Amino acid sequence: MRRILVAGNWKMNASSADTKALLNGLLDAGNLSCDVAVFPPFPYLTQAVSELNGSAIRVGAQNCSDQRSGAFTGEVSTEMLADCGAELVIIGHSERRALYGETDEVVLSKTRLAIDAGLVAVVCVGETLEERKAGREETVVAAQLTLLLSELTDADWKNVVVAYEPVWAIGTGETASPEQAQAIHAYIRTLLAERSANIAEETRILYGGSVKSANAADLFSQTDIDGGLVGGASLDAAEFIGICRA
Ligand code: PEP
Predict the structure, then answer these.
(1) Atom 7, ligand 1: which residue's CA is nearest?
(2) Cα(161)–Cα(2) distance, rounded to whole angstroms?
(3) Contact predicate 199/192, CB 8 Å
(4) Is the CB of 8 under 6 A from ligand 1?
(5) Distance (Å) from CA 130 to ligand 1 centroid
(6) Can 137 be counted among the known catalytic residues?
(7) Exposure of 42 by Cβ count < 10 A (0-12 exposed, 13-18 middle, 19+ buried)?
(8) Which of 3, 82, 157, 210 satisfies CB 3.0 to 4.6 Å to 175 for a cystine?
(9) Which region, left, alpha or beta, applies to residue 167 given φ > 0 means left and ψ of -120 to 50 means alpha?
(10) Which residues is 61 bridged to in the sheet?
């Protein structure tokens, strides 16, 4: 049975005061019946780990290096993230693919290093509006998953979460309908099943793209949607808690 995971990607937002206020807001909600993780910017990771100490809310990073260690100025390794107390890392977010040229090869290297460091890799896939209009969404996500499916072992897959995020729905206020989202989640699960029935059964596939408390229940009740990767709405404690409660 896959547990719902609600993951809050803060992107390049918040200060240390905001981090404290937002996390206190989440802690005030008490026990939530799903898995919850927050992804603050790098400088606030250790603060978030200590603020959340003793709670079930886990902390993740928004990115990591594709190199293990060494002369890579400005980069942060997966070992460092684990050392800071992070337990998850987002890899291949569409903003990183589009703005920083992250390829599927880079996504694979980062995923490999994340798993080696004991982190859960939240790997993002999804098509652009142009690709959807051309009816290419399945082709695009299949291509983005090909290397992961061929290179990762069955054991590796236990530490992978897939996030399907249609680029046209990220930060736009436009959400895929529950039916549209379910259709592509089901397709992704078919791809996983071609690799292994167990991987298909156990791997969580999150939906991302303008998830809010008002649409979360409809999305999360779909058979193949196992939670959400939430951007904008994760910066508002009440809204994020509403999504977790959904
Ligand atoms: C995201 O950045 O992963 C995201 C889904 O953003 P938003 O919820 O703001 O669309």
Answers:
(1) 231
(2) 11
(3) yes
(4) no
(5) 19
(6) no
(7) middle
(8) 210
(9) alpha
(10) 89
Q: Tell me if 166 CB under 6 Å of ligand 1.
A: no
Q: Distances in Å between the alpha carbon of 106 and those of 88, 93, 144? A: 17, 12, 11
What single letter denotes the amino acid at residue 33?
S
Q: Which of 43, 44, 48 is closest to 23 using CA atoms?
A: 48
The verdict on pTM exceeding 0.85 is yes
- Amino acid identity, position 122: V
Per 3-state DSSP, what percentage of the chain is helix, strand, and coil (rounded to 5)? 50, 15, 35
Task: Look up residue 36 and give its two tokens.
Answer: 């919850």
As a whole number of angstroms, the distance between CA 81 and CA 63 comes to: 10
Per-residue pLDDT of the chain (246 residues; tens, 9 = 90+): 899 999 999 999 999 999 999 999 999 999 899 999 999 999 999 999 999 999 999 999 999 999 999 999 999 999 999 999 999 999 999 999 999 999 999 999 999 999 999 999 999 999 999 999 999 999 999 999 999 999 999 999 999 999 999 999 998 888 889 999 999 999 999 999 999 999 999 999 999 999 999 999 999 999 999 999 999 999 999 999 999 999
Instruction: State which ligand 1 atom lies nearest to the alpha carbon of 169.
Output: 10
Pocket test for ligand 1, best of 175, 212, 230, 239 (most atoms within 8 A of CB): 230
| Domains parsed from the chain with CATH numbers | 5-245 (3.20.20.70)
> What are the backbone angles phi and psi of residue 89, rounded to the nearest 5°?
-150, 135
Marked catalytic residue, from 51, 93, 95, 127: 93
Span between the terminal Cα atoms of the chain, in Å: 18
